[in-house]
Design a protein that fits this description.
Blueprint lengths: L3 E6 L7 H14 L4 E6 L1 H8 L6 H15 L7 E4 L5 H12 L2 H5 L2 H9 L8 H4 L1 H10 L5 E4 L4 H18 L7 E4 L27 H9 L20 H9 L4 H10 L4 H15 L1 H11 L3 H29 L3
Parallel strand pairs: 1-2, 2-3, 4-5
Helix pairs in contact: 3-14, 4-8, 4-15, 8-9, 10-13, 11-13
Bound molecules: tryptophan and iron/sulfur cluster (SF4).
The site of iron/sulfur cluster has 13 residues, from helix 11 and helix 13.
Protein backbone atom coordinates (compact mmCIF):
# COMPACT_ATOMS: atom_id res chain seq x y z
CA UNK A 1 0.00 0.00 0.00
CA UNK A 2 1.37 3.35 -1.02
CA UNK A 3 1.32 6.10 1.57
CA UNK A 4 -1.08 8.93 0.87
CA UNK A 5 -0.01 12.44 0.01
CA UNK A 6 -2.39 15.37 -0.08
CA UNK A 7 -1.41 18.78 -1.36
CA UNK A 8 -3.13 21.70 -2.98
CA UNK A 9 -2.52 24.98 -4.69
CA UNK A 10 -4.64 28.05 -4.94
CA UNK A 11 -5.67 28.60 -8.57
CA UNK A 12 -3.24 31.19 -9.87
CA UNK A 13 -3.88 30.78 -13.59
CA UNK A 14 -0.88 30.16 -15.79
CA UNK A 15 2.12 29.03 -13.78
CA UNK A 16 5.62 30.47 -13.86
CA UNK A 17 8.95 28.70 -13.52
CA UNK A 18 9.01 29.62 -9.82
CA UNK A 19 5.83 27.59 -9.29
CA UNK A 20 7.40 24.72 -11.18
CA UNK A 21 10.65 24.56 -9.24
CA UNK A 22 8.94 25.39 -5.96
CA UNK A 23 6.29 22.67 -5.95
CA UNK A 24 5.13 21.15 -9.21
CA UNK A 25 8.42 19.46 -10.04
CA UNK A 26 8.31 17.77 -6.67
CA UNK A 27 4.69 16.67 -7.16
CA UNK A 28 5.56 15.10 -10.48
CA UNK A 29 8.30 13.06 -8.83
CA UNK A 30 6.04 12.02 -5.96
CA UNK A 31 3.20 10.72 -8.14
CA UNK A 32 5.10 7.50 -8.87
CA UNK A 33 5.91 6.66 -5.28
CA UNK A 34 2.82 7.72 -3.35
CA UNK A 35 -0.94 7.69 -3.58
CA UNK A 36 -1.14 11.36 -4.47
CA UNK A 37 -4.18 13.61 -4.10
CA UNK A 38 -3.52 16.99 -5.69
CA UNK A 39 -6.29 19.54 -5.64
CA UNK A 40 -7.14 23.05 -6.72
CA UNK A 41 -7.80 25.06 -3.57
CA UNK A 42 -10.49 27.29 -5.03
CA UNK A 43 -12.13 28.01 -1.69
CA UNK A 44 -8.77 29.11 -0.36
CA UNK A 45 -8.51 31.49 -3.29
CA UNK A 46 -11.57 33.25 -1.93
CA UNK A 47 -9.78 34.09 1.32
CA UNK A 48 -8.01 36.91 -0.48
CA UNK A 49 -9.89 37.16 -3.78
CA UNK A 50 -13.48 37.15 -2.56
CA UNK A 51 -14.12 40.30 -4.56
CA UNK A 52 -12.53 39.20 -7.82
CA UNK A 53 -13.97 35.87 -8.81
CA UNK A 54 -14.55 36.65 -12.47
CA UNK A 55 -11.39 34.81 -13.55
CA UNK A 56 -11.64 31.97 -11.07
CA UNK A 57 -12.80 29.35 -13.55
CA UNK A 58 -10.22 30.22 -16.15
CA UNK A 59 -7.48 30.38 -13.49
CA UNK A 60 -8.38 26.85 -12.43
CA UNK A 61 -8.38 25.61 -16.00
CA UNK A 62 -5.07 27.23 -16.93
CA UNK A 63 -3.33 25.98 -13.82
CA UNK A 64 -4.51 22.41 -14.31
CA UNK A 65 -3.47 22.51 -17.98
CA UNK A 66 0.00 23.57 -16.84
CA UNK A 67 0.06 20.80 -14.23
CA UNK A 68 -0.72 18.15 -16.79
CA UNK A 69 1.38 19.52 -19.62
CA UNK A 70 4.34 19.63 -17.26
CA UNK A 71 3.86 15.99 -16.28
CA UNK A 72 1.19 15.44 -13.65
CA UNK A 73 -0.57 12.39 -15.00
CA UNK A 74 -4.19 11.79 -13.98
CA UNK A 75 -3.63 8.08 -14.43
CA UNK A 76 -0.97 8.17 -11.71
CA UNK A 77 -2.38 10.72 -9.30
CA UNK A 78 -5.79 12.08 -8.42
CA UNK A 79 -6.60 15.64 -9.46
CA UNK A 80 -9.71 17.36 -8.17
CA UNK A 81 -11.20 20.66 -7.19
CA UNK A 82 -11.58 21.38 -3.48
CA UNK A 83 -15.09 22.82 -3.78
CA UNK A 84 -16.42 19.72 -5.55
CA UNK A 85 -16.22 18.00 -2.15
CA UNK A 86 -18.35 20.13 0.19
CA UNK A 87 -17.53 17.65 2.95
CA UNK A 88 -14.35 19.63 3.46
CA UNK A 89 -16.39 22.68 4.43
CA UNK A 90 -18.33 20.72 7.00
CA UNK A 91 -15.20 19.21 8.51
CA UNK A 92 -13.68 22.67 8.57
CA UNK A 93 -16.72 23.86 10.51
CA UNK A 94 -16.22 21.26 13.23
CA UNK A 95 -12.56 22.20 13.44
CA UNK A 96 -13.46 25.87 13.68
CA UNK A 97 -15.51 25.10 16.80
CA UNK A 98 -12.48 23.79 18.65
CA UNK A 99 -9.71 26.05 17.37
CA UNK A 100 -8.86 28.95 19.68
CA UNK A 101 -8.62 32.26 17.85
CA UNK A 102 -5.27 32.92 19.50
CA UNK A 103 -3.76 29.94 17.64
CA UNK A 104 -4.84 31.46 14.35
CA UNK A 105 -3.79 34.98 15.21
CA UNK A 106 -0.26 33.98 16.08
CA UNK A 107 0.26 32.22 12.75
CA UNK A 108 3.19 33.99 11.05
CA UNK A 109 1.69 33.87 7.55
CA UNK A 110 -1.45 35.50 8.89
CA UNK A 111 0.44 38.31 10.60
CA UNK A 112 2.64 38.92 7.57
CA UNK A 113 -0.19 39.00 5.06
CA UNK A 114 -2.23 41.35 7.22
CA UNK A 115 0.68 43.75 7.18
CA UNK A 116 1.54 43.24 3.53
CA UNK A 117 -1.84 43.45 1.85
CA UNK A 118 -3.22 46.93 2.19
CA UNK A 119 -5.08 47.06 -1.10
CA UNK A 120 -8.02 45.25 0.42
CA UNK A 121 -9.59 44.23 3.68
CA UNK A 122 -8.49 40.73 4.62
CA UNK A 123 -9.32 41.00 8.28
CA UNK A 124 -12.07 38.49 7.63
CA UNK A 125 -13.22 35.36 9.36
CA UNK A 126 -12.38 33.30 6.26
CA UNK A 127 -8.83 34.55 5.99
CA UNK A 128 -8.15 34.05 9.68
CA UNK A 129 -9.48 30.51 9.34
CA UNK A 130 -7.30 29.64 6.33
CA UNK A 131 -5.26 27.02 8.26
CA UNK A 132 -8.44 25.37 9.56
CA UNK A 133 -9.70 24.72 6.05
CA UNK A 134 -6.22 23.58 5.07
CA UNK A 135 -6.24 21.06 7.90
CA UNK A 136 -9.62 19.75 6.77
CA UNK A 137 -8.23 19.42 3.21
CA UNK A 138 -5.62 17.02 4.45
CA UNK A 139 -7.27 14.89 7.09
CA UNK A 140 -10.57 14.53 5.23
CA UNK A 141 -8.63 12.12 3.01
CA UNK A 142 -6.35 10.85 5.78
CA UNK A 143 -3.31 12.37 4.12
CA UNK A 144 -0.16 11.10 5.80
CA UNK A 145 2.34 13.35 4.12
CA UNK A 146 1.99 16.88 2.87
CA UNK A 147 4.61 18.28 0.53
CA UNK A 148 4.84 21.98 1.18
CA UNK A 149 7.30 24.81 1.08
CA UNK A 150 8.91 26.10 4.24
CA UNK A 151 6.46 28.99 4.45
CA UNK A 152 3.64 26.50 4.99
CA UNK A 153 5.19 24.73 7.98
CA UNK A 154 3.34 26.84 10.57
CA UNK A 155 0.05 25.84 8.92
CA UNK A 156 0.99 22.20 9.15
CA UNK A 157 1.97 22.51 12.78
CA UNK A 158 -1.27 24.30 13.56
CA UNK A 159 -3.10 21.54 11.73
CA UNK A 160 -1.49 18.91 13.91
CA UNK A 161 -2.60 20.80 17.01
CA UNK A 162 -6.16 20.97 15.72
CA UNK A 163 -6.12 17.24 15.06
CA UNK A 164 -4.85 16.54 18.59
CA UNK A 165 -7.56 18.67 20.04
CA UNK A 166 -10.23 16.92 17.97
CA UNK A 167 -8.94 13.54 19.11
CA UNK A 168 -8.88 14.75 22.72
CA UNK A 169 -12.53 15.83 22.66
CA UNK A 170 -14.01 13.12 20.45
CA UNK A 171 -11.70 10.14 20.78
CA UNK A 172 -8.63 9.16 18.79
CA UNK A 173 -9.58 9.23 15.11
CA UNK A 174 -7.32 11.33 12.90
CA UNK A 175 -3.58 10.78 12.63
CA UNK A 176 -1.36 13.82 12.52
CA UNK A 177 -0.20 14.59 9.00
CA UNK A 178 3.48 15.16 8.44
CA UNK A 179 5.10 17.80 6.32
CA UNK A 180 7.58 16.73 3.70
CA UNK A 181 9.83 19.57 2.77
CA UNK A 182 10.76 19.57 -0.87
CA UNK A 183 14.25 20.47 -1.94
CA UNK A 184 12.55 23.32 -3.69
CA UNK A 185 14.65 25.90 -5.41
CA UNK A 186 13.71 29.47 -4.78
CA UNK A 187 13.49 31.25 -8.09
CA UNK A 188 13.88 34.98 -8.19
CA UNK A 189 11.96 37.11 -10.63
CA UNK A 190 13.55 39.00 -13.50
CA UNK A 191 13.88 42.05 -11.24
CA UNK A 192 15.48 40.25 -8.30
CA UNK A 193 12.41 40.16 -6.10
CA UNK A 194 10.52 36.96 -5.36
CA UNK A 195 9.00 35.68 -8.60
CA UNK A 196 5.36 36.62 -8.62
CA UNK A 197 2.75 37.36 -11.21
CA UNK A 198 1.66 40.45 -9.31
CA UNK A 199 5.16 41.91 -9.52
CA UNK A 200 5.23 41.40 -13.30
CA UNK A 201 8.62 39.72 -12.98
CA UNK A 202 7.74 36.14 -13.85
CA UNK A 203 8.83 33.82 -16.63
CA UNK A 204 5.72 31.81 -17.40
CA UNK A 205 5.77 28.19 -18.50
CA UNK A 206 3.50 29.13 -21.38
CA UNK A 207 5.54 32.11 -22.58
CA UNK A 208 6.70 31.83 -26.18
CA UNK A 209 10.42 31.26 -26.85
CA UNK A 210 10.70 34.84 -28.08
CA UNK A 211 9.07 36.21 -24.95
CA UNK A 212 11.37 34.19 -22.72
CA UNK A 213 14.42 35.46 -24.60
CA UNK A 214 13.15 39.05 -24.25
CA UNK A 215 12.49 38.69 -20.53
CA UNK A 216 15.95 37.22 -19.96
CA UNK A 217 17.55 39.98 -22.02
CA UNK A 218 15.95 42.51 -19.67
CA UNK A 219 17.42 40.91 -16.57
CA UNK A 220 19.93 42.70 -14.42
CA UNK A 221 23.43 41.19 -14.42
CA UNK A 222 26.53 42.14 -12.49
CA UNK A 223 26.51 45.95 -12.53
CA UNK A 224 30.33 45.94 -12.35
CA UNK A 225 30.49 44.54 -15.87
CA UNK A 226 30.46 47.20 -18.50
CA UNK A 227 32.78 45.80 -21.11
CA UNK A 228 32.79 42.16 -22.11
CA UNK A 229 36.30 41.77 -20.71
CA UNK A 230 35.43 43.14 -17.25
CA UNK A 231 35.71 40.37 -14.65
CA UNK A 232 32.23 39.40 -13.42
CA UNK A 233 30.77 38.35 -10.08
CA UNK A 234 28.29 35.62 -10.92
CA UNK A 235 26.92 35.43 -7.39
CA UNK A 236 25.30 38.84 -7.66
CA UNK A 237 23.85 38.07 -11.09
CA UNK A 238 20.24 36.99 -11.59
CA UNK A 239 21.04 35.26 -14.87
CA UNK A 240 23.60 33.15 -13.09
CA UNK A 241 21.00 32.19 -10.49
CA UNK A 242 18.91 30.66 -13.27
CA UNK A 243 21.91 29.01 -14.92
CA UNK A 244 22.40 27.16 -11.64
CA UNK A 245 19.04 25.54 -12.30
CA UNK A 246 19.01 25.24 -16.08
CA UNK A 247 22.64 24.82 -17.07
CA UNK A 248 23.98 22.57 -14.32
CA UNK A 249 26.24 20.66 -16.71
CA UNK A 250 28.11 23.80 -17.77
CA UNK A 251 27.98 25.82 -14.59
CA UNK A 252 31.70 25.56 -13.85
CA UNK A 253 32.54 26.79 -17.31
CA UNK A 254 30.15 29.75 -17.00
CA UNK A 255 31.50 30.65 -13.57
CA UNK A 256 35.05 30.59 -14.81
CA UNK A 257 34.39 32.52 -18.01
CA UNK A 258 32.30 35.16 -16.25
CA UNK A 259 34.95 35.73 -13.60
CA UNK A 260 37.66 35.90 -16.24
CA UNK A 261 35.70 38.23 -18.49
CA UNK A 262 35.66 35.65 -21.25
CA UNK A 263 31.94 35.56 -21.87
CA UNK A 264 29.68 38.53 -22.50
CA UNK A 265 26.37 38.92 -20.70
CA UNK A 266 24.53 39.02 -24.02
CA UNK A 267 25.90 35.63 -24.97
CA UNK A 268 25.39 34.28 -21.48
CA UNK A 269 21.74 35.32 -21.55
CA UNK A 270 21.22 33.80 -24.95
CA UNK A 271 22.51 30.50 -23.62
CA UNK A 272 20.15 30.68 -20.66
CA UNK A 273 17.15 31.43 -22.87
CA UNK A 274 18.06 28.43 -25.03
CA UNK A 275 18.20 26.21 -21.99
CA UNK A 276 14.93 27.42 -20.51
CA UNK A 277 13.26 26.99 -23.88
CA UNK A 278 14.71 23.53 -24.36
CA UNK A 279 13.32 22.48 -20.99
CA UNK A 280 9.85 23.51 -22.16
CA UNK A 281 9.81 21.75 -25.54
CA UNK A 282 7.67 18.79 -24.49
CA UNK A 283 5.53 20.99 -22.30
CA UNK A 284 4.63 23.18 -25.28
CA UNK A 285 3.56 20.26 -27.41
CA UNK A 286 1.45 18.81 -24.62
CA UNK A 287 -0.09 22.14 -23.70
CA UNK A 288 -1.12 22.80 -27.28
CA UNK A 289 -2.68 19.35 -27.37
CA UNK A 290 -4.69 19.86 -24.16
CA UNK A 291 -5.74 23.35 -25.23
CA UNK A 292 -7.55 21.86 -28.21
CA UNK A 293 -9.99 20.29 -25.80
CA UNK A 294 -10.02 22.26 -22.55
CA UNK A 295 -13.31 20.65 -21.49
CA UNK A 296 -11.23 17.59 -20.79
CA UNK A 297 -9.71 19.42 -17.81
CA UNK A 298 -13.11 19.76 -16.16
CA UNK A 299 -13.85 16.11 -16.86
CA UNK A 300 -10.60 15.08 -15.20
CA UNK A 301 -11.35 17.20 -12.14
CA UNK A 302 -14.87 15.78 -11.97
CA UNK A 303 -13.73 12.20 -12.18
CA UNK A 304 -11.06 12.91 -9.57
CA UNK A 305 -13.77 14.26 -7.30
CA UNK A 306 -15.92 11.16 -7.84
CA UNK A 307 -12.97 9.00 -6.94
CA UNK A 308 -12.26 10.72 -3.64
CA UNK A 309 -15.88 11.35 -2.67
CA UNK A 310 -16.41 8.00 -0.92
CA UNK A 311 -13.39 8.69 1.28
CA UNK A 312 -14.70 12.14 2.17
CA UNK A 313 -18.16 10.80 2.92
CA UNK A 314 -16.85 8.02 5.09
CA UNK A 315 -14.69 10.42 7.10
CA UNK A 316 -17.62 12.76 7.57
CA UNK A 317 -19.99 10.07 8.74
CA UNK A 318 -17.39 8.96 11.27
CA UNK A 319 -16.83 12.55 12.40
CA UNK A 320 -20.56 13.23 12.76
CA UNK A 321 -20.92 10.14 14.87
CA UNK A 322 -18.10 11.23 17.12
CA UNK A 323 -19.38 14.78 17.46
CA UNK A 324 -22.90 13.34 17.91
CA UNK A 325 -24.34 15.25 15.00
CA UNK A 326 -25.41 12.03 13.34
N1 LIG B 1 -1.87 26.95 1.59
C1 LIG B 1 -1.37 26.29 0.43
C2 LIG B 1 -0.59 27.30 -0.42
O1 LIG B 1 -0.81 28.48 -0.31
C3 LIG B 1 -2.46 25.70 -0.39
C4 LIG B 1 -3.20 24.62 0.33
C5 LIG B 1 -4.50 24.64 0.71
C6 LIG B 1 -2.66 23.38 0.76
N2 LIG B 1 -4.81 23.49 1.32
C7 LIG B 1 -3.72 22.68 1.38
C8 LIG B 1 -1.40 22.78 0.68
C9 LIG B 1 -3.54 21.43 1.93
C10 LIG B 1 -1.22 21.52 1.24
C11 LIG B 1 -2.28 20.85 1.85
O2 LIG B 1 0.23 26.90 -1.22
FE1 LIG C 1 25.81 37.18 -15.25
FE2 LIG C 1 26.55 35.69 -17.27
FE3 LIG C 1 27.00 38.31 -17.29
FE4 LIG C 1 28.37 36.73 -15.66
S1 LIG C 1 28.41 36.69 -17.90
S2 LIG C 1 27.44 38.68 -15.11
S3 LIG C 1 26.83 35.21 -15.13
S4 LIG C 1 25.04 37.30 -17.34
Amino acid sequence: MKKRIVSGNRPTGKLHIGHYHGALKNWIELQDKYDCFFFVADWHALTTKYDETENLRSDIKEMVIDWMAMGLDPSKCTLYRQSDLPEVAELSLYFSMITPISWLERCPTYKEMLKEIDSKDISTHGFLGYPILQTADIVLYHGEFVPVGEDQLPHLELGREIVRRFNYFYGQYFSEPQAVLSQAKRVLGTDGRKMSKSYGNSIDLSDSPEKILKKIQMMITDPARIKRTDPGHPDVCLVYGLHKIYTVDRINEITKKCKAGEIGCVECKKLLAERVNESLTDFRVRRAEIEKNPEKVWEILKSGAEKVRPIAQKTLSEVRKRVRID
